[in-house]
From TrEMBL:
Belongs to the chitin synthase family. Class IV subfamily. This is chitin synthase. It is a multi-pass membrane protein. One of its GO terms (cellular component) is plasma membrane. Its main location: membrane. It catalyses: [(1->4)-N-acetyl-beta-D-glucosaminyl](n) + UDP-N-acetyl-alpha-D-glucosamine = [(1->4)-N-acetyl-beta-D-glucosaminyl](n+1) + UDP + H(+). One of its GO terms (molecular function) is chitin synthase activity. InterPro entries: Chitin_synth, Nucleotide-diphossugar_trans. It comes from the Eukaryota.
Length: 388
């Protein structure tokens, strides 16, 4: 009897394995989105015949000087790659940069009111340093000049705003948030730029025309087209990337209209045993796992340090509105505030949008180098998966 049971168990396991292999093969064979192609077809530029709008949105808190230097150099590098021009016919995309700086103010005993803290002042200093580097980049190697970028400082209800004009005409807007005036933490910074860029900058002009009586098919098609061709690049305060990596993500969203978000391959940087462990872990749980998710079905979580989102997907029903929900229960604090990347991607997937992965779009981020930082990071990353 035991032999018959063993034979039946082995036969059932073999049949189940064969059926699983067959179903997986059929699933991959009939996918609408091409997965298995030649390298030159997957990772080469496509021609873009329409001018796209890309908003670079970075969130900062208390990053170190070197970490903030990485992302500012990356943004200035993109400014050199895509100078601002009035002729939209000869450019494939335009971009604006918005940095949302949490908890940027502190009390000053010697004066009235609140002033920028040391981290925010470091960012202002970095602008001057990087601006000088990119302004004198073609001069003699040891010819160092002090260059002050054009800046506008504006007082706002949430704190303050600094506008910096880069050497090639593009603008960086830094939103310094005062936690005594507005909600802080990363998710609320993301909600802030979603409603500001998509709800106000993108839709205000159409709402004004709608109030004047425009509401025909051509008007609605124009709105949908701009939503389809507007992207948001989510960045962390220490992300280092090249313009070519951004172009690959843009090509992915442009090529497949059903893709709501695409992420690149993240490389942890740093030194020490904790970083060594994370490099191995990223190779397994990020590069390998996301590749498997991309090929078999759909990526479940697009990391907020380097991901491109389509405006139309973010503005879909129950995405931005649900994402801006205030935490009212204990489980909400875990699901909403400690895992905002996975939460946002879950909302996109529930609306039928695809999330994909491009292994050729490389970006670099600083990894925690001691146990306390690593533990706090993994505590944030691990908890949000439980209520899902």
């Amino acid at each position: 009897m035991s032999k018959m049971a063993d034979i039946g168990l082995l036969t059932g396991s073999a049949v189940s394995w064969w059926l699983g292999l067959l179903l997986a093969t059929l699933h991959l064979w009939y996918l609408n989105v091409d997965r298995i192609q030649r390298t030159q077809d997957l990772f080469t530029r496509r021609l873009v015949y329409e001018t796209l709008m890309v908003y670079l949105c970075a969130t900062m808190w208390h990053e170190t000087y070197s970490e903030m230097m990485n992302i500012i150099i990356s943004i200035f590098r993109l400014d050199k790659y895509r100078p601002k021009t009035e002729d939209e016919k000869n450019t494939d995309f335009k971009f604006e940069t918005h940095i949302y700086f949490d908890d940027a103010f502190t009390d000053d005993k010697d004066s009235r009111g609140r002033h920028l803290n040391k981290y925010a002042l470091n960012l202002v200093e970095i602008f001057t340093e990087v601006y000088g580097i990119f302004t004198n980049i073609n001069d003699e190697f040891f010819n160092k000049k002090q260059q002050i970028p054009e800046q506008n400082i504006i007082r706002t209800p949430y704190g303050g705003r600094l506008e910096v004009t880069m050497p090639h005409g593009n603008i960086i807007t830094v939103h310094f948030k005062d936690k005594d005036l507005i909600r802080h933490k990363k998710r609320w910074s993301q909600v802030m730029y979603l409603y500001y860029l998509l709800g106000w900058k993108l839709m205000t002009k159409y709402y004004a025309r709608y109030q004047k009586g425009e509401d025909g098919p051509e008007f609605r098609a124009e709105v949908e087209k701009e939503k389809q061709n507007t992207y948001i690049l989510a960045l962390d305060g220490d992300t280092d990337f090249q313009p070519a990596a951004l172009m690959l993500l843009i090509d992915r969203l442009k090529m497949y209209p059903s893709v709501g978000a695409a992420c690149g391959r993240i490389h942890p940087t740093g030194s020490g045993p904790a970083v060594w462990f994370q490099k191995f872990e990223y190779a397994i749980s990020h590069w390998l796992q996301k590749t498997a998710e991309h090929v078999i079905g759909c990526v479940l979580c697009s990391p907020g340090c380097f991901s491109l989102f389509r405006a139309k997907a973010l503005m879909d029903d129950n995405v931005m509105k649900k994402y801006s929900s205030k935490s009212m229960e204990a489980s909400h604090y875990i699901q909403y505030d400690q895992g905002e990347d996975r939460w946002l991607c879950t909302l996109l997937l529930k609306q039928g949008w695809r999330v994909e992965y491009n292994a050729a779009a490389d970006a670099f981020t600083n990894a925690p180098e001691n146990f306390n930082e690593l533990y706090n990071q993994r505590r944030r990353w691990g908890r949000p998966q439980w209520p899902m």
